[in-house]
Structure formats: structure tokens, C-alpha cells
Specification:
The chain contains 17 helices and 15 strands. By secondary structure, the protein is α/β, with parallel strands linked by helices. It has three domains: 170 residues, Rossmann fold, CATH 3.40.50; 202 residues, Dihydrodipicolinate Reductase, domain 2; 39 residues, no CATH class. The strands form two sheets. The protein has a nine-stranded mixed beta sheet with strand order 14-13-12-11-7-10-9-8-15. A six-stranded parallel beta sheet has the order 3-2-1-4-5-6, sandwiched between helices. Helix 7 runs parallel beside helix 8, helix 8 packs antiparallel against helix 17 and helix 9 runs parallel beside helix 13. The protein is globular and about 60 Å long. The termini are close together. Pfam families: GFO_IDH_MocA (PF01408), GFO_IDH_MocA_C (PF02894). Its EC number is 1.-.-.-. Keywords: Oxidoreductase.
Length: 454
């Protein structure tokens, strides 16, 4: 947990920029000072970082791959790429102007290329093994969320970091979006007083939601379920917004639409006899990037990117509800539905002096298609302010480029505490892991019984 002095300094900073609890906040100044994770990197900001990447799927190849060198040519030197699929890693290599060496064995890559930092973008359940191996081989780690998918792996990452002295950053890009920053500023400045409860309803539409059930995410052994994979974003945001950690979790979950519930099934969409009658048929041949990265590489490992949504062995949930109590007494209610006609979130914070409401719809069946509103509603004065920030430029509303800068330039000030270290990653993961265990056992789970971070 952050120390009390850290909390006080952040609040003092924020209150100095707020003439009153309901004053209008400007996001631009905060974005200009977006804070990175401090890593124990030997390279100074004027030196190039030797970077190796493991996992050349879509996120690795297009977010953390060659675009890093294009955007930060004076800072990044990618020295190695690794993937168990030799065709896919060779395709990722082909995108570089100065192609790095490619490997199918992780340890061989590290010993051959001697990177300063390893970026982990492999399937979720493998994050821990690569992060731990990287630290043991002398590298710092930048890991995509979720940091881990089991309590055992969370503990192992924590122990490895202590033993090796190396550092882990988890790339929670959602901390860097303008609306997320605005909420953090309001809460930290006391705009609604003490927080009593948080409610979040998250919805994925039939485009986005269905995609998880086509991919490797559809199996708990790979993703930990969507409570660990997708839920990791909002769980981290709430942990960060509240500056608190989860204590006990109760959850419900079910599979209502996909998997065994399907009206028919096949192996994958291409060549399926039901394509004309399936509402969710996906023609992957019209997606050039997916064809290059997956279809043209599937002969090496048999992975079908357009797998059938109705495979009977799918074992994750599509309908979920979670209740969590934090160490500061705040209650958090969360629901995730991945079969919705709407893509977005409704989040509300209830406090002693008022309420903050965020309604953010990324896709909806009416105009405007994208619609976000952030409201501050207070008891005294009895009033409402609309404080919706402008979207940033770049992926995820400007969050992706912001977190890249954060990772690569670790000396930038951190007034909002956006640093997402291993503890933040573990606390996000463990909330989802505990929720899954609660669904399976019908019991309330206590975080203290699952992991020891002392």
C-alpha cells in the first residue's frame, strides 16, 4: 500500500490546483506530466534501451513491436523477438526497418541479445513464466495486463522481484485516458468527500464480446476467464482511484450465450456450413492484418483465430457479477455482460458530499455512435457540473501513446500516482482470480488467504 505521506503529497498537489471541491479541472496540464513507472533500468533517458519482446500476436506486434522504434527512434533498440510460432515471429520481424533477431526459445533469446528490458505480450497464462525468467536472467519487465492468472503465479512474481532486485511494470493503459485522469483528480481532491461505494456496469457488444470466444481467451487455463482478462482494467482503475486494496470478494458467473448454448457449431468460420444463418459469422479473409498474423501462420501451431463461438468445451463466463470490500471500507459492485447491444461502461462513485457519474459508450445503436458524459453531482451546493474531458489522440483515447512515453522515460514526475508496479498488477489480478474462485466454490474469498505480499 502507498504510505500516508504519499497520499498527503498527492492530495496537496491536487488541492493546490483546485480552488474548491467542485471547481472545474483541466486535464491538459496533467497529461503533459503523465507519470511513468520507475524501472531499475541502467540506460538513462539519453541512451537507447535494449528491448526484447516475447509474444508476437496482435498487441505485441502492433502496440509494442516496430511502432516503438518508429515513435521513439532515439530511445528504443529492439534486439530480439520471440514466439513459439516461427511463422508469426518472422512476420513480426518483417515489419521492422532494421529487423531484430528472432527466436522460438525465450532463454536463448535473452542470453543471445542481452536486453535491458523484456516486454511480455504472450497469452495471459504465460505472463508469469516469462516475467520471472526475465528477472532471473537480469532483465526488468514490462508486462501487458493481466500480470498473472492464478494466485500461485502472483505470489511467484512477487517473490522473484524481491529475490532478483529487478522491477516489473504492468501496462494498465486505462489509467492514462483523460476521463480516468479526471475522475482520479476529483476523488483525490475530495470533490465528493469520503467514498462509500462504487458501482460499475461494463458491457461488451456482440462484435467485441464475441471476439474473446473465438480466441484462446475462451478457455480458463489460458485467460483465467474474462474476470481476470477484461476485468483487470476496471479492477486496477478502482484500486487506483480509491488508493485502496481489495479485502474480500463474492461473485456469480454463468455462460448463457456462447459455447454449449449455441444453436449449431463447427470448428471455425471459414468453410462453416452455418455461415448464412449464424448472426456472428466472421469472414476473417476480409481482415488483412488477421490473415497475415494468424491464418498464414496457423500451419505452424494449428491455432484458429476464427474459431467457432459455440465450441462445447468453452469454459469461461459471458455474464458476471462481483461484490468487493476494500481495506478502507468502500464497497464495489461490478457487472460484466459480453452479449450487449451497447459497448461501454457506466460507473458511479457515491460519497459523503455527492456523486460522480461516468457514462461512456463506445458504440451504441443511435447517434452519436460514441458518447461520453462525466458528471459531478453535489449535495451542498445542490448542483451538477458536466466535466467531460476531450479524448486524446491515439489508441484507447490517447492512453496507448501516453503509456509508451511513461515506460520509456521513467524520470517523469508522477503527481497522480499512475505508476503500475507489480503490486498494482497483482492486486488487479487477485481480485479477478478471487471472483472466479468464489463462483466455483460459492464462498466469499479473502485476499489475505490467497497471497502474502509482506
Amino acid at each position: 500500500m502507498p504510505t500516508s505521506s504519499t497520499k498527503e503529497s498527492r492530495r496537496e498537489f491536487l488541492q493546490s490546483s483546485l480552488p474548491g471541491a467542485t471547481a472545474k479541472l483541466t486535464v491538459g496540464a496533467t497529461l503533459a506530466a503523465i507519470a511513468p513507472q520507475v524501472l531499475a533500468l541502467e540506460a538513462t533517458p539519453s541512451q537507447k534501451l535494449r528491448v526484447a519482446l516475447v509474444g508476437t500476436g496482435s498487441r505485441g506486434t502492433y502496440m509494442w513491436g516496430e511502432s516503438l522504434e518508429q515513435e521513439f527512434p532515439d530511445r528504443v533498440d529492439t534486439v530480439g523477438l520471440c514466439d513459439i510460432n516461427p511463422l508469426r515471429v518472422e512476420y513480426a520481424q518483417s515489419l521492422y526497418k532494421d529487423p531484430p533477431a528472432v527466436f522460438t526459445d525465450f532463454e536463448t533469446m535473452i542470453r543471445a541479445t542481452k536486453p535491458d528490458v523484456v516486454i511480455v505480450t504472450s497469452p495471459d497464462a504465460t505472463h508469469a513464466q516469462y516475467a520471472i525468467a526475465a528477472m532471473q536472467l537480469g532483465c526488468d519487465v514490462i508486462c501487458e495486463k493481466p500480470l498473472a492468472t492464478t494466485a500461485k503465479d502472483c505470489q511467484a512474481i512477487h517473490d522473484a522481484e524481491k529475490q532478483t532486485g529487478k522491477k516489473v511494470i504492468v501496462t494498465f493503459n486505462a489509467r492514462y485516458s483523460p476521463r480516468t485522469i479526471r475522475i482520479k483528480e476529483l476523488i483525490a481532491a475530495g470533490a465528493i468527500g469520503d467514498i462509500y461505494s462504487v458501482d460499475c456496469s461494463e458491457m461488451l457488444d456482440l462484435d467485441h464480446g464475441a471476439s474473446y470466444f473465438r480466441r484462446w481467451h475462451a478457455y480458463k487455463a489460458n485467460s483465467g476467464t474474462l474476470l481476470v482478462q477484461k476485468g483487470s482494467h476496471i479492477f486496477d482503475q478502482v484500486n487506483w482511484w480509491l488508493d485502496a486494496e481489495p479485502v474480500e470478494i463474492t461473485a456469480l458467473g454463468d455462460l448463457r450465450k456462447y459455447g454449449r448454448n449455441g444453436p449449431f457449431r463447427s470448428t471455425h468460420c471459414r468453410g462453416c456450413n452455418h455461415k448464412s444463418e449464424c448472426e456472428l459469422y466472421w469472414d476473417i479473409t476480409k481482415d488483412k492484418r488477421a490473415m497475415q498474423l494468424y491464418v498464414q501462420c496457423e500451419q505452424a501451431d494449428g491455432y484458429l483465430r476464427d474459431a467457432c463461438l459455440y465450441r462445447e468445451d468453452i469454459d469461461i463466463y459471458d455474464t458476471m457479477a462481483v461484490q468487493c470490500r476494500y481495506d478502507n471500507g468502500v464497497m464495489f459492485n461490478y457487472s460484466l455482460n459480453v452479449t450487449s447491444p451497447i459497448e461501454g461502461q457506466i460507473i458511479a462513485f457515491n460519497g459523503s458530499r455527492g456523486r460522480i457519474e461516468l457514462r461512456s459508450y463506445h458504440r451504441q445503436p443511435w447517434n452519436p455512435e460514441m458518447d461520453t458524459e462525466l458528471r459531478l453531482i453535489t449535495n451542498d451546493p445542490y448542483a451538477m457540473q458536466l466535466l467531460t474531458p476531450e479524448q486524446g489522440e491515439g489508441g484507447h483515447g490517447g492512453a496507448d501513446p501516453a503509456i509508451k512515453r511513461s515506460v520509456l522515460y521513467p524520470d517523469t514526475p508522477d503527481p497522480l500516482g499512475q505508476r503500475a508496479d507489480s503490486r498494482a498488477g497483482i492486486m488487479s489480478s487477485i481480485l479477478g482470480i478471487a471472483a472466479v474462485r468464489s463462483i466455483e466454490t460459492g464462498e466469499t474469498m479473502r485476499v489475505a488467504d490467497m497471497i502474502d505480499l509482506s
